[in-house]
Amino acid sequence: MTVPRFVAAKGQRKLSMLTAYDFTFASIFDAAGVDSLLVGDSLSMVIQGHETTLPVTLDEMIYHGRLVCRAAKHALVIVDMPFMSYQVSPQQAVENAGRIIKETGAQAVKLEGGVNQARTIKALADADIPVMAHVGMKPQSVRVLGGHGKVQRDYDQLRADAMAAQEAGAFSVLMELIPRDSAAKITQELTVPTIGIGAGPDCDGQVLVSYDMLGLSPDDFTPKFLKRFANLRAISDAAARDFAKEVAAGTYPGDAHSHV
Ligand code: KIV
């Protein structure tokens, strides 16, 4: 997958995207035919255990980006620009996105914003750095929003953000937590692909946080858009309990798992 092929898929077929943070899961998703792997700043929460996406650093994103790129043979790898790695100025954004592209091997970066980041998106595009814009519910704005998870309903603002991102040179727009009708209208209007999460079925593609999709996140995390395609938390829990029990009982390792 390349950026031009990703863009050309609009109107031809739906695009799939999953977050990935390490070599093993990235290899599995890549071999399964997922079109794009997003090294999301959700790793701040999912991998590092923080309450928001704000603490993860640029160096940490680059580290995880490298692990995912090492695994990706087909998928388009996109790395999130973390909080405060691009908000200061377009020059700061180009320098930091340049580091991401050079040091990870990823094909593109993602940043949160539309109208308010148009100058930065243009600066990245002018530097030949493909950029995906993230509009709607923007997790890096958590301090302003007062929390995660609220559906963004201001259609005029959503449309303006998506259009501004496209006009500034974004090759795709991710839309998070917006009403499906708004997502459908914006998708029709844009010439670049839209990727939805909590934005209904009419986007050009769909993304999920892989740990949620696999059922690894806690059972009480139940946003309406989330479908768990597996229940790896329960499977992992049962396996860990069995392991601990067998070790305690002295039944593991038995003859079958011992060298003679
Ligand atoms: O960081 C992330 O996981 C995201 C999601 C919206 C897919 O940006």
Radius of gyration: 20 Å
Bound molecules: 3-methyl-2-oxobutanoic acid
If classified by CATH, what would the architecture of the largest domain be?
Alpha-Beta Barrel
Helix-and-strand structural type = alpha/beta
Main beta sheet: strand number and arrangement? 8 strands, parallel, barrel
Map the helices and strands:
Elements: H1 3-8, E1 15-19, H2 23-31, E2 36-39, H3 43-46, H4 58-71, E3 76-80, H5 90-104, E4 108-112, H6 118-126, E5 131-136, H7 142-145, H8 155-168, E6 172-176, H9 180-189, E7 194-197, E8 205-208, H10 210-213, H11 232-249
Helix pairs in contact: 2-4, 4-5, 5-6, 6-8
Q: Could you provide a short overview of the structure?
A:
The protein is of the alpha/beta class. It is built from eleven helices and eight strands.
Distinctive features:
15% strand; 260 residues; eight-stranded parallel barrel; 41% helix; 11 helices; binds 3-methyl-2-oxobutanoic acid; TIM Barrel; 8 strands; globular; alpha/beta
